[in-house]
TetR/AcrR family transcriptional regulator
Amino acid sequence: MAEKSSSGGGDLPASLEAAWGLRARPAKGPKPGLSLERIVAAAVDVASADGLAAVSMGRVAQEVGASTMSLYRYVSAKDELYVLMQEAAFGPPEPLSALESGASWREALAEWASAQRDRLHAHLWLLRIPVGGPPATPNSLAWWEQGIQALEGSGLDEGDKTSVVLLVSNFVRSEALLMADLAAAVTARGASPDEVTASYERTLKRLVDPVRHPGISRLLESGAMSEPDDPDYEFTFGLERLLDGVEALIRKMDGGVKSA
Amino acid sequence: MAEKSSSGGGDLPASLEAAWGLRARPAKGPKPGLSLERIVAAAVDVASADGLAAVSMGRVAQEVGASTMSLYRYVSAKDELYVLMQEAAFGPPEPLSALESGASWREALAEWASAQRDRLHAHLWLLRIPVGGPPATPNSLAWWEQGIQALEGSGLDEGDKTSVVLLVSNFVRSEALLMADLAAAVTARGASPDEVTASYERTLKRLVDPVRHPGISRLLESGAMSEPDDPDYEFTFGLERLLDGVEALIRKMDGGVKSA
DNA sequence: CCCTTCTGCGTATGACATACGCGTTATTGC
DNA sequence: GCAATAACGCGTATGTCATACGCAGAAGGG
């Protein structure tokens, strides 16, 4: 009754079907004047230019020279467009040079994390798309796979590899989100990044009570807040901690064999 | 020209002013028939019952027995309501028992992370509220402070303490978000959690190509996917890795002194 | 050659956030 | 006491969205 797909069978969620390009190609009616690719590309352009909030069906249609409702011939709902945008903007992973050169799992995983981070930074609006369940799109699977491969020489079992991959990619994502929020705050006011940081520090100094918040007070006094030039600092710091933690696990598992 | 606050001076963002309870108490007009507290409490109830998406100004007003527009006498915009909801639902931290009993920083930080996680799980909709910049509300600061205090005996410097606190709380948040998304998927379809997991595994098996995705294929074959009963597993796993990583840092910093 | 099926798209609906202004009610300065 | 003042509750209006529905025209298939 519901069998109509040209490959396989069963009912994938509509968005997945679209993402994998298994849309039933109808041979009957008039030729489509648009294409999913054009629509998604236009939506990505809008998001890159004016943020995810600017991506409305009307705006995308306008961008592509069609009427709002015609988009629904290609996309079942806006959520589906989101999925496709994510897939397109994130793209497939590049091969890891650390894997080809036979470097350690640690280098491979670090490279993998950085690559993922770069994609997110190139399209900060990706972080605003609500996540809808576990990964199942082509590129998501490809990245996942690559993460597992980075851990190939580690001696971890399959379940732990996936847990580590999940842990690292969650870290990358949440760190990027933090940066995106900061960038958004910067954009919202007209000020420069330094100006915003300084203003935040001033606000904190006003609100923090040395008695109730001795730790934060010490932080403010230490001046550690006024000089963090490197925007990569928190990322590098967190990633190192994470990798150290994974290393500890690996050592625990196989009793001291360095896999390099 | 803009000086009107009753304590301090300068212009806090409106939402912060509200969160810290420094709203100018007007002595002129009629008595307010509502209160911020009532409004926020109603909004929290709506979110808890029907999710954050159900929190509209109209709905909250109805819940509180007032008209939509009257809410704007108490709240300058919906974003402000969000901030207040977050503050109310998250609440202040309990004292850490690990701190009182003089346990290690590791136990303290683990307890802190778990406590934070519990709050998020009690109000999953908290994770849907878009984050607006760095923490500056009373409870946010209190949690931050407590995280720093958990690291008191660690020997880390102030900057590193804050980085670790940030790292851990980001981890807790992103793990909870993952669970929330899963729960949302479960709710969306009518099925049971096991049913959804099984369906996901079936989907993966259909989409994964053993040649392009050897790692994921191995995972699927290993059956590691079919039996994860413990919903805390990923949390515990990730937290252990993180704490191991922090431990490695501490050892590196002070040359081998165990702080317990 | 007509009938089925798909196309683009105009129109309509129903949420929603929020600006504006009006009548009303306390409080304060006289 | 009494008017001037400011805050209150809230009806109405505006503009933005996603999206359901249905129609008219295009293209293959029988």
In short: Residues 26-34, 66-70, 73 of chain A lie near DNA strand C (CB under 10 Å from a C1'). DSSP finds eleven helices and no strands in chain A. Residues 1-9 of chain A have pLDDT under 50 and may be disordered.
